[in-house]
Structures are given as C-alpha cells and as structure tokens.
Amino acid sequence: MKLFELIDGLNYEVVRGNTNVEVKDIKNDSRKVTEGDLFFCISGAVSDGHKYAEDVISKGASVLIVEKNIEVNIPESVAVIKVDNSRYAMGYISSKYYGEPSKKLTVIGITGTKGKTTTTYMIREMLEASGTKTGLIGTIEILDGKDIIPAKNTTPESIVLHKTLKDMVDNGVKAVVMEVSSQGLMLDRVAGVDFDYGIFTNLSKDHIGPNEHKTFEEYMMWKSKLFTMCKTGIFNCDDKFFDNMTESATCKTLTYGMNKEADYKADDVRLYNQDGVLGIEYTLNGKKNADIIVDLPGEFSVHNSLAAIAIADLLGVPMEDIKLILKGIKVRGRVEMIPISDDFTIMIDYAHNAMALESLLTALKAYNPKRLVTLFGCGGNRSKDRRYEMGEVSGKLSDFTVITSDNPRDEEPLDIINDIKIGIGKTDGEYIEIPDRKEAIRYAILNGKKGDVIVLAGKGHEDYQEIKGVKHHMDERDLIKEILEEEDVTKICGYNNRYFA
Fold first, then answer.
1. Within this chain, do residues 249 and 349 fall inside the same structural domain, yes or no?
2. Mean pLDDT of the region 160-166
C-alpha cells in the first residue's frame, strides 16, 4: 500500500523523502521491523520510540512517523512524516492499512468506572441470540469470531485493535462490543475507530495517580471523549456525573435509569434469592415495556441490564430474546455464582480495591444474609493503602472475613496479610487468616451456614497466582471443584452441586 493512501486526510509534514513509497507492513515495536515497514515513533512513559530511529532504518524501514525532530542520518529512500501526535496517527493509519474495518461493523463502545465488563457480555449474548455474529474486546478476553484471545489491556493498542477488527470482519462478525478505558481514550488507542454507539455506565474515583490520571476531572474528561466519537450515546442518567458526561457530547443522546424519566426506565425493583442464586427483578418502562429478571445481584445489575436492553432494542433484538439472556446471564468473575448449595450462596468477583469491594458488599447486604462472609487478599508490589482500605471495608461490612493471599508477586504473603489486618483492626469485624488460598476457600465452604453469602473477592476471571515473577495456574473454580472432590460433601450445608454436575 502506498504511503500517500495511508496518510490521506491526516495533518502532516513531509520532513524527508516522498509519499509515493510502498509500505509493506506497519509496526510500533522496533524489534519486529523488517524491510519496507512503516515504523511509528511513539513517545511512551517508559521509552521513546524516536530513540530507535537509526535502528529501524538499519533494518530496512521505509517510513518513520514522528512527532519530534530526529538527529540521525536518514537515507534518501526513507520517508519521514512529522505529525502532531504519533499515537493518534498510529490509530488513523492502522485503520487505513487494515481497510477501515470499524466502518464494516456495528461498533459499540462502553466506558465508565464499573460495569463495563458485565454489560459487554450482556450485549454480546443478546445480539448473538438474535442471529448477529458479535465480537468482543474487553478486560477478560477478545472474541474475534474464531478464536478466544486472552486480553493484555482492557483496550488494546490501536495497531492491535484495528488488526483485531479486520480479523473480525474476515471471520464474518457483524457487530463488536468493546470496553473503552480512560487510558484507551487518553492514549488514542481508539483513534480511527468508527463508533456507532457509546455507553456511559457510571463514574467514581479510580485510576488517579502518577502513572494514570492526575485528577478526577482529567479522568472524567477523557471518559467523556467517547461521546464526541460516536453517533449515539446511551447514558446512565442516575449517575451524579451525568451532566458532566453529556455537556460536551456531540452525539444523539438516549438515557437509562431508575430515578428520572429515562428512555429505558426500571420501576418496582425487587431483590430475589432462590436456591443460592441472588438476582433482581423490575418492570421496564419507556421505549419498551416488559417484566425483567436478571440473575445477577445488586442495583448495579439493574443499570448494566438497562444499558444492554437499550442497545439490543436499537439493534432490533426481540424482547423475548433479551429477557431470556438476562434470566440466565453469567459473566466470568463478575458476581459469578457457583451454585454448590441450596442453603448458602458462594460467588466469585473481581473486586480488588476498596471502592469495588464496598460497592459489592453494600449491594449484597441488601439481601439480608444470615452472614456476609468475605474472602480476599491483596496484590504484592502495590500500594499498602489498598490493603488498609480493603481490610477496613471488609471489617465494617462483612460479618466474617477470611484473609488470604492474592498475587503476592515479590512480597511475602504474611506481610501483605499483616497490612490488611491493620485496616480490619480499625473495625470490630471478626476474621481468620489462612494464607493458602485453596485452604481458605475450603474453610469458607465447610463452615458455610444456611443463609450465608460467601464472596471470593479479588481474583475474578484470573486463572493464575503470581509469585516471585512466575504465574502459577490457580482458578478458583478449579479449587472449589477439587475441594468438593476431596471432602465428604454431606458435611456441606445444603449441598446440591449444579455447577460441576
């Protein structure tokens, strides 16, 4: 493909060479550059791609995309194109190189602090049920219509993203639903993506720090960028930052919620607990009217399902299909029920910071469990504040806490546990410490009582435990299965294994 075709419509300056040069491939990793490649010089947080200009030229790169002046000897055969922002240019050029795949798909982007993952799966299942082959890009995995690919970032780098979208088109995918992180928006990972729909779930303080966003206002600003990129925005009008998120939107606006006259509104919300499964029921009013049951607990499940219903309705999914999907919805590691007892509830959730844990436990307390039991640990090589805060949250909201190990990384598990105990020590909460996570889960199961809700928090969809730089396989579902095989299950309160049967 000719360079002039790739940069058509982009604001650029030709520093050297000409735009008639042939581009064999596009790369942003200098180690992978070969003869005839276009290389993006990206100014990253860790390294600056401009420093590798001489190296990639020696490997045969035919084009350099730069945002700074480079002081190296450049052959006449190499084109150097200067742009305002190399990251934006990478997204724009990647889209062109792969044939603008997002324009051949119905693209649904979801942004917000919480609820992105669950909502993406709800939408995908609804569209699939109606016969629309649908891809998914998110925190857990990428589903490209052929393969299941473990995710490295919530929103992949643009050069990977557009290649993935092309693969989806080649695999017969017609729609894609993707999580759009604030980092993805700030770093132009979604540059060049033609979004048909954008969804705003909610906003709270997260991802604020030296390596992420400097302030909450900055975080909010980048989140709102999605609604300058999509054709239709669907907003949670119950969220206190609804006005902030919509004020700069350039898209058509639709709303969902419980407390205002939303386009998709949930009335008469009711909680239910049947055979160890917690869920919610409500009456849908507005653009659609129906009685809805969601097999996931909490008010956040109302909002997540409303967002999914709005998209499904706009894309013509029959209400019967929508209701059927929500009644049986399961999302790996997101309030994922593991039904091994009719008497108590056990679930796996990714809540790995104080904010997420508080939101989850508050939602579960509304079901009035006999006891709310929380099992969790904290990651090593991370802020100690998270440990203190999670310990305090669990101590305040749980009736009993099982403190265990998460991903200790380079730290000693007992040191992390001791930090958690400092937080829980600020409360009157009862706890036990069992460093081995499998043994901790065994204790929680064997001591489960009728009416209990047991939360295994922190690992969620993860299937490993990282210790001293090595990731060891550890899936909590496997651990539960092993425990059931090793124990006399008649001793487990209300044992009824529907999950592993």
1. no
2. 98
Strand order in the sheet with 175-179: 148-150, 141-143, 134-137, 175-179, 106-111, 195-200, 230-236, 252-257, 264-274, 277-286, 290-294
232, 255 contact by CB (below 8 A): no
Q: How far is CA 145 from CA 98, 133, 172, 176, in A?
A: 17, 7, 7, 10
Task: Give the list of residues 6+ apart from residue 468 with CB closer than 8 angstroms, or none.
Answer: 409, 410
Tell me: the pLDDT tens digits for 247-266? 999 999 999 999 878 999 99
DSSP one-letter code for 253: E
**Tokens describing residue 266:** 């949930």
Backbone torsions φ then ψ of 431, nearest 5 degrees: -155, 165
The pair phi, psi for residue 248, each rounded to 5°, is -105, 10
pLDDT of 210 strictly over 70: no
Least confident span in 325-329, 391-395, 440-444: 325-329
Question: What percent of the chain shows pLDDT beyond 90?
Answer: 90
Q: Which of 97, 114, 134 is the last residue of a domain?
A: 97
Distances (CA, A) of 18 to 3, 52, 63, 76, 85: 9, 21, 9, 9, 20
Same domain, 255 and 346: no
Residue 315, domain CATH: 3.40.1190.10
Instruction: Assess whether 107 and 93 both reside in one domain.
Output: no
Q: Examine the pLDDT at 46 and tell me if it is beyond 90.
A: no
pLDDT-derived band at 59 (thresholds 50, 70, 90) equals very high
CA 167/CA 328 separation, integer angstroms: 29
- 84 vs 260: CA distance, rounded Å: 43
Q: Does 449 lie in the same domain as 381? A: yes
- Beta strands 264-274 and 277-286 are antiparallel
Mean pLDDT rounded to a whole number for the chain? 95
Whether 35 and 107 share a structural domain: no
d(CA 176, CA 92): 19
Q: What is the pTM of this model?
A: 0.92
Residue 312 in this model has a pLDDT that exceeds 60: yes
> Using 50, 70 and 90 to split pLDDT, how confident is the model at 209?
low
The secondary structure element, H or E, covering residue 110 is: strand 106-111
Q: How many helices (H) and strands (E) does the chain have?
A: 15, 24
Position 428 in a domain: yes
Radius of gyration of the chain (CA): 25
Is a pLDDT exceeding 70 seen at residue 473? Answer: yes
CA 293/CA 277 separation, integer angstroms: 12
